[in-house]
Specification:
single chain; mainly beta; Jelly Rolls; 7-stranded antiparallel β-sheet; 1 helix; 1% helix; RmlC-like_jellyroll
């Protein structure tokens, strides 16, 4: 089993700070990269056989593809402004060139493409938001690329969790191809922490004990979830943001709760 924690690589000579592929992760579907660009720097890629969702975590940029010519998109310099992001969806057999107008932090989310979905800009007005949980299990969600919006494989969401709260909790999993009860979805968590010297704890574990890892994820680290439960806990003084990418053979988010902790969803908690 590959390491589940990918540490941040400061962009001293290369702009790529995270680079996760199906080959490096030991799975089939999700690819995830992060680039930190200075104003004027350029990122170009071919999408090849993958669909891509570019998420502007922070900064403003121009983006060109075979069919798009987008100028100065982006409306936040940091995710902790808590504004909804700008994103760009690109199908397989496409290409893009992103030119940074300010310092830019961009996530490149990838999964198998099948064709038939057009490239498009995803604006803050296109992104739904919701609050989940109660008590010390509250979080706020921006649904960037949910299953209700067109794509082939990708599901993309960002989540805010305030200090001292848990998230992705009660523990849940989505590692069986058994819809509509449960779907198989690989998942990455790109963690950002405010203030940036902090960390969160994340545990990834299966019922049979094949995986049971607890990790301290620092600012800009990535946790990979090939299967199993995967809750996150924040610490006093530090707020959490994470960007989730999920993909699998069935583009539906169907999950099951861990029985032992499902009571936290009940009226008996947090009232």
């Amino acid at each position: 089993m590959p390491e589940l924690l990918s540490k941040y690589r400061a962009p001293e000579t290369e702009t790529c700070t995270q680079e996760i592929s199906p080959e490096s992760a030991g799975w089939k579907y999700v690819g995830f990269e992060v680039f930190e660009l200075k104003a004027g720097e350029v990122l170009s890629q071919q999408t090849e056989d993958k669909e891509v969702c570019l998420v502007l975590v922070g900064g403003k940029a121009n983006v060109k593809s075979k069919t798009l010519d987008l100028n100065n998109i982006g409306d936040r310099m940091s995710p902790f402004e808590r504004k909804k992001p700008y994103a760009v969806y690109l199908p397989n057999d496409d290409e893009f060139t992103l030119t940074a107008n300010t310092d830019v932090e961009v996530a490149v989310c990838k999964a198998p493409g099948k064709g038939g979905v057009k490239a498009r800009l995803i604006t803050p007005g296109d992104i739904g938001s919701e609050s989940r949980g109660k008590g010390f299990n509250k979080r706020h969600v921006h649904n960037i690329l949910p299953e209700t919006e067109p794509a082939d494989s990708l599901l993309v969401v960002e989540v805010y969790t305030d200090e001292g709260n848990t998230s992705s909790y009660p523990s849940h999993k989505h590692d069986q191809d058994n819809a509509p009860h449960e779907t198989y979805l690989e998942e990455t968590y790109y963690h950002r922490i405010d203030p940036p010297q902090g960390f969160v704890f994340q545990r990834v574990y299966t019922e049979d004990g094949e995986i049971d890892e607890s990790m301290a994820a620092y600012n800009k680290d990535v946790v990979m979830v090939p299967k199993g439960y995967h809750p996150v806990a924040t610490l006093a003084g530090y707020n959490s943001y994470y960007l989730n990418v999920m993909a699998g053979p069935d583009r539906r988010w169907c999950f099951v709760w861990e029985d032992a902790h499902n009571w936290v969803n009940s009226p008996a908690y947090g009232e």
